[in-house]
Specification:
By secondary structure, the protein is an alpha/beta fold. The chain is built from 10 helices and 15 strands. Among the domains are: 153 residues, Leucine-rich Repeat Variant (Alpha Horseshoe), CATH 1.25.10; 99 residues, Ribonuclease Inhibitor (Leucine-rich repeat, LRR (right-handed beta-alpha superhelix)), CATH 3.80.10.10. A 15-stranded mixed beta sheet has the order 1-2-3-4-5-6-7-8-9-10-11-12-13-14-15, covered by helices on one side. Helix 2 packs antiparallel against helix 3. It is elongated and about 105 Å long.
Length: 493
């Protein structure tokens, strides 16, 4: 019975067998074994004992060209690259002409690109000249300033795009300075019968080393390969609408990342190492299964936009208060029972959505959010609002529908910039008349309240365009409301 490669190597390491005998055993396994794993191990050990004679070279050449297993062919290419580099060009060129595996072709071209010879350069230029894609400007490479390595990198990027186009006809990409900087593989799994389902990210995408934006949304991905960590220029990645359950560890290595969309997945925990993404500005975690956020969230000092809608959050960590640059925060449809105190310190916050929670009151400190322009507190259990809300001098849109409100604080008359006010599905029994003093109010919705009688006195509403009174108990429209309609205001009743 043939010994395993590990057993042979153990005997070699203990000087039980000679280097020559160990090599013969390894070669025998490579040539005769039907176990591909054993063959790959034998190749690895053969390389480790540094056998670089002509017999091994001939074996590797043969494997590169004719072996049926692409992993064995790739291992042979790597072996020649490492141990027979000075003789690598001819076998690499010949192997390229017969190879069908894209990952092996990439390894071959990459190796040729490292060979500083006229033969290697001529070969690369000839292959580049064959490119039939108007997106790739092949004419510029007649300039001698490009090294063989740069020629190889350019050709590899073309090979990757060509391979992807053959598989997915919906893909898009953008080129700048002769490199792929954007790649869109969104929804490529939607072909008839799903023959080309994208459930794994192609490892060779790491070769697109100048990539800045990558979209992989609407596929069936469960993770992204660790090898992609070398995409050091990546600034935006979209992984939304996939089947990811665990936050991909690879993402933590994208130090240049500014935008991350991982919404509509199945993630239940954000790791502490999220703190490494110090350049992140936009973070979309909508529609996952998050119960909490790590305290290390405060390291995301450049975060401006954070979407946590449709999770199961009960609260926010106290360190959340240090996200000083945050302008947009969506906490809608979670399990919050109060507005987190940490929000009090977010002085640059312009948009806040906390609709669809279990909140019963609005804190007095709400007036601290002086930059707030949009506030959505709908679908909660709020029955009263504090007078301090009138101090939100920049507020332009306020939605409060589906709460238990019966009236508004008088301070609302100070909301001079308010344009949209939605009070639908509350318990108002009358139209808050002082709202007519708001100079910029354009839309006022009181749909689904308990209003029976409308005011008879003349109303101003200088900027009002829409007044929605649908689903109330109003039986008679007074002249004051009719006049508003004659003045061009759309009234729904």
């Amino acid at each position: 019975m043939e010994k395993k490669p590990s057993e042979i190597y153990e005997e070699y390491s203990r000087n039980i067998i000679t280097t020559s005998l160990a090599a013969k055993h390894f070669i025998s396994i490579i040539e005769n074994s039907g176990d591909q794993k054993q063959r790959l191990q034998a190749l690895s050990y053969l390389n480790r004992i540094e056998i670089v004679d002509s017999e091994v070279f001939d074996l590797l050449e043969n494997l590169m060209i004719s072996d049926s297993n692409e992993n064995v062919r790739k291992a042979a290419v790597e072996y020649i690259k490492e141990s027979f580099f000075e003789k690598a060009f001819d076998p690499m060129k010949f192997s390229y002409e017969h190879e069908t595996s894209i990952k092996n072709i990439i390894t071959i071209i990459s190796t040729i690109g490292k060979i500083d010879s006229i033969k290697a350069r001529t070969f690369l230029l000839r292959e580049i000249e064959k490119i039939d894609n108007e997106m790739f400007n092949v004419k510029i490479f007649t300039d001698k300033k490009y090294s063989n390595k740069e020629l190889a990198e350019y050709f590899i990027e073309y090979l990757i795009i060509n391979n992807l186009e053959q598989k997915y006809d919906k893909m898009e990409y953008k080129i700048k300075n002769n490199h792929i900087i954007e790649l869109n593989l969104s929804d490529v799994s939607s072909h008839v019968f799903e023959w080309n389902v994208l459930n794994k990210v192609p490892i060779y995408l790491v070769e697109l080393c100048f990539l800045r934006k990558l979209s992989l949304k609407f596929n069936k991905l469960r993770n992204i390969p660790v090898s992609l960590k070398d995409l050091k220029y990546l600034e935006a990645i979209d992984l939304s609408y996939n089947k990811i359950k665990k936050f991909p560890q690879t993402i933590e290595s994208f130090s240049a990342l500014r935008e991350l969309n991982i919404s509509y997945n199945r993630i239940d925990k954000i790791p502490n190492s999220i703190s490494r993404l110090v350049n992140l500005e936009i973070f979309n975690l909508r529609a996952n299964s998050l119960k909490e956020l790590p305290t290390e969230i405060n390291y995301l000092k450049n975060l401006r936009n954070l979407n946590l809608r449709d999770n199961i959050l009960l609260d926010l960590p106290h360190t959340f208060q240090y996200l000083y640059k945050l302008e947009f925060l969506d906490l809608g449809s979670n399990n919050l029972v109060k507005i987190p105190t940490s929000l009090k310190f977010l002085k640059n916050l312009k948009y806040l959505n906390i609709s669809g929670n279990e909140i019963r009151s609005v804190p007095l400190w709400i007036n601290e959010l002086q930059s707030l322009e949009e506030l959505h507190i709908s679908d909660n259990k709020i029955t009263e609002l504090p007078e301090t809300m009138g101090a939100l001098k920049n507020l332009s849109s306020l939605t409060l529908w589906n709460n238990g409100l019966e009236n508004l604080p008088e301070s609302f008359k100070k909301l001079k910039k308010l344009k949209v006010l939605n009070l639908s599905w509350n318990n108002f029994s009358q139209l808050p008349i002082f709202l007519e003093l708001l100079p910029n109010l354009e839309i006022l919705s009181l749909w689904g309240n308990k209003i029976k009688v409308l005011p008879s006195q003349s109303l101003k509403f200088p900027s009002l365009k829409i007044l929605d009174l649908n689903f109330n108990n109003i039986k008679e429209i007074p002249e004051s409301i009719k006049k508003l309609k004659r003045d061009g205001i759309t009234i729904y009743k």
